[in-house]
Amino acid sequence: MAERTKPEGTLVLLPRIELIKPKDAHALPPNPEAWISEPKLDGIRTAAYVQRDFIRILTTGSLDVKLNVPTVLAGLVHMARYHTAILDGELVYEYGDSTSDRLTIESLISMRPELAQRARAQSHVSYAVFDLMFLDGEDLTKTALIERKRRLEKLITPYMRKRFNISPVIYEESDHEKFMRVARDEFGLEGVVLKLKDSIYSQRTRKPWTKIKFRSKKKEKNYTKSAKR
After folding, report:
1. Among residues 150, 168, 186, which one ends one of the domains?
2. How far is CA 3 from CA 8, 78, 106, 107, in A?
């Protein structure tokens, strides 16, 4: 068998990408067909830099937490055998009927790695990925969001989803009102995030992402596991 070659692309030399911060909104936009909607999860926002011998999972505060989430790290190491990539997503704690237990995931990433790795909660940590900014030497930040989504779906294989709890976040392209009702009434999520289908990945665009928070929040059901495809 031929030796597997190292993936192309150099993340080490790539400038760190500024994560997009959603802006607050109170209603759907007037042209809903131009947008997608996603569930707003209550996890820890991170950017994953994936390259063989170079894996980082950075919080918005630039803390590298990869050693605190060993299952997710193993999944990214597996990905790095075939690809280089930069991902945008959230570390989420899932258990039974509850999802996005922020206190638990915050506790895990604030522990010393050797303690976090032995914590019972590790088996319930997932990485919900909603964007792909770099893949195999190609800068995707100027590529339309909907195309980045499609490439992300192909990148995260069924094996990775099942074995390492890494999954792309689901999204709705048309019936946003129904999506919001399901997110609120059936899963008790705190809101949704709306993104223009043709938007590039940049915090400096006029309307990159907007979030709509629900007035009341029920007990959250396990949305991310229900959403895995």
Report:
1. 168
2. 15, 16, 40, 41
